[in-house]
Amino acid sequence: MTGQCNGRDLLVHLTNTTTKPIYADAWLAADPALHLPRRLISSWLPPGYTRKVPVAVRAADRTKPGTYHLRISSAGTSVDVPVKVSAPPPDAGLMRLATRVTASSARATGPVCAAIDGDPGTIWNDATGKRWPDWWQLDWDRPRRISRVEVVTTAEWGLRDWDVQVAAPDGWVTVRSVRGNTAVRHITRFAPRRAAAVRIVTLAGNAVNDQSRLAEVVIR
């Protein structure tokens, strides 16, 4: 589906079929509608070894549904991979309808999309430990009616203090403040309102090596 966090990973296999170790390179090229986080895969391969490399393939919001193409080239050969792009269904949840997800910073092992991938085992993790505040933000293409924000943090080193903010014509408005939290899951409710973006401003964690950690965010 279209949207920054709605794509899938393409698993690229690099195999050494020789009897000697080699350095293998694979180049990736795609139609302009597709976004690739990398264009080159390079790896040292022992004899008979196969390395599997996941590559996240995404289509920008409002990309026309259809079949696009990605080409992988290595050692003088190329493979064309068709990529089917579809629009989110009308009944998709607010998280799947997000057009953009951003944060004040993110570690390579804790990307912003990890907070809305449906897997509490993955997390968004800021890249500025012990420096507060941090923020994580989700935008839609138009204002949506919302009244509930569920935050799932981690069992250890979870978030303690944060503010839930919504976008307003004159800036960000704090609709709820959470202080002293020790639970893994916390649900914040507020009077229904329409907003085109939600921001979670993190202020403190429950660990010595304080960092922002969001396992899942669910907005309704």
Which range best describes the helical content: under 10%, 10-25%, 25-40%, 40-55%, 55-70% or over 70%?
under 10%
Q: How much of the polypeptide forms β-strand, as a percent range?
A: over 45%
Unreliable segments of 5+ consecutive residues: none
Q: What count of structural domains?
A: 2
> What is the total tally of β strands?
15
Count of individual helical segments: 0
Spell the H/E element sequence: EEEEEEEEEEEEEEE
Tertiary shape: globular
Could you characterize what this model shows?
Residues 87-220 form the F5/8 type C domain. InterPro entries: FA58C, Galactose-bd-like_sf. The chain is mainly β and 220 residues long. A hairpin with a 2-residue loop joins β11 (159-168) and β12 (171-178). The chain folds into 2 domains: 8-85, Immunoglobulin-like (Sandwich); 94-219, Jelly Rolls (Sandwich). It has strands at 8-15, 22-30, 34-35, 40-45, 50-59, 66-74, 77-85, 100-103, 124-125, 134-152, 159-168, 171-178, 185-205, 213-214, 216-219. The chain is 0% helix and 56% strand. The protein contains no helices and 15 strands. The mean pLDDT is 91.
